[in-house]
C-alpha cells in the first residue's frame, strides 16, 4: 500500500509534534479491508478520525465507502484531506440506517467510552446485513476486556487478534438480533433538570461534578436576573421542573423571574446541554446557543432542551469551537472545557475554547469557566480573554469569571 498517510492533516483539530493524523490501527484496518476483497459499497467506516481509513481505501480503488465521524473537526479534516489528495467517491453519514443499510464489513476505530461502543454495536446489529462483520481496532494500551464484553452483547463471536505494531484488531461476527428498543439515548432527572444522553456524550445522563460546581457558582455570581425594585415574596418561588414538580433548593435550576433584556449566552462545548438547558430554564428572556463538535453531544443536547421544554429558546449547533458564531455576538459564555484530546492529555483543546470564547464575547461580556484546580488556567484566561477572578472553589474545582477586554 503506497498511500501517502504522512500528507494527512488533523486541521482544524489541534496540531502538535506529538499528535498525528493517523496511527498503526488505521493501517491495520485498511490492510484487513483490502485483504477481504469486499466491495466498497458494502463497507462502512466508523470513527475515522481524520479520514485515513476512508481515503486510503478510496485511493486503493474502492468506491462507495460510507463513513461516520462523530466530530465536526474530523469531518472537516476528512473533507480537506480528500480535496488535497484529489480523492472522491465516498459519502458521510450520521450513525443511522443510511450508514449501515446492506453493509457487510464495518471498520471501527474503537471509541474511548464503552457506552459509545455499545451504541455503535447496536446500530450494526440493527441496520447492517445479517452476515455483517465488525472489525474494531485500537492501540493496545487503550484497549480493555470490557470492550470485548460490550461487543459480546451484540455479536455471538468476538475474537481478539495478536497485537501488531502496538495495535490490535478485534473481530466481531454473527450479529445477534437487535433488541426492539435501542439502548440509547438514556434519560435521567436531576432536581428539576432532565438530561438525555447518546452513548458518545460526555458524562452520559449524569450531571458531571464540574458542571454542578459551575451551576452553583452561576447561581451565586449572577443569581436570577433581577426586575426593578425590591423582590416580592411571590418572586422567591422555586423553579418548576419539566415534570411540573418543584426543584429543591439544591436543584440545578435557578429561580425564574420577570422579564429583563434578552441576552445571548453560549454554552461552548455543551455535551448533553446541561448548562444550556439549566440557564434557559432560569432566564426565560435569554437566548441560548449550545454548541459542540461531537454529533453525539449535539443529538443529546437537542433531546435535553426538548425534554426541558426550552427547545424554542436554545439553538444547538454542531460546530468546531463555535466557528459559525459571529465575533462579539455573545453576552456570556459558559465553559466546562475538555482536557483530553482523544486518548492523549493535551491542554490545547481547552486553549482553543478560551480563544473561541474571547472571539465570540462582546467587550465586557463574561466567560464563566470551571476546571480542575490543578490545571491553573487563570493566567491563560487573563491573557486570552481579560481580567479573571475566582468566583467559587471546591476541594477539586475552581470557577472563574473573565471579563472580555
Ligand atoms: C468536559 S465536557 C463538558 C460538557 C458540558 N458542557 C457539561 O458541562 O456537561 C467538554 C465538551 O467540549 C466538547 N469540545 C471539545 N473540543 C471542542 C471544540 N473544539 N469545539 C466544540 N466542542 C468541543 C466535547 O465534545 C465535550 O462535549
Describe this structure in words.
The protein is globular, with a radius of gyration of 23 Å. The protein has 11 helices and 18 strands. It is of the alpha/beta class and 405 residues long. α1 (24-36) packs parallel to α2 (52-59). It folds into 2 domains: 5-175, Rossmann fold, CATH 3.40.50; 186-227 and 236-403, 3-Layer(aba) Sandwich (Rossmann fold). The chain has helices spanning 24-36, 52-59, 72-85, 97-100, 114-127, 145-152, 209-221, 274-282, 295-307, 348-360, 378-384, and strands at 43-46, 66-68, 91-92, 105-109, 133-139, 155-160, 167-175, 186-190, 193-197, 264-268, 287-292, 314-318, 330-335, 340-341, 344-345, 361-372, 388-393, 397-403. The longest helix has 14 residues, at 72-85. Mean pLDDT is 90; it is low at 225-250 and 254-260. S-adenosylmethionine is lined by residues 202-203, 208, 211, 267, 269-272, 274-275, 292-294, 297, 320-321, 336, 338, 349, 352.
What keywords describe this structure?
405 residues; alpha/beta; Rossmann fold; 2 domains; 7-stranded mixed sheet; 24% strand; globular; binds S-adenosylmethionine
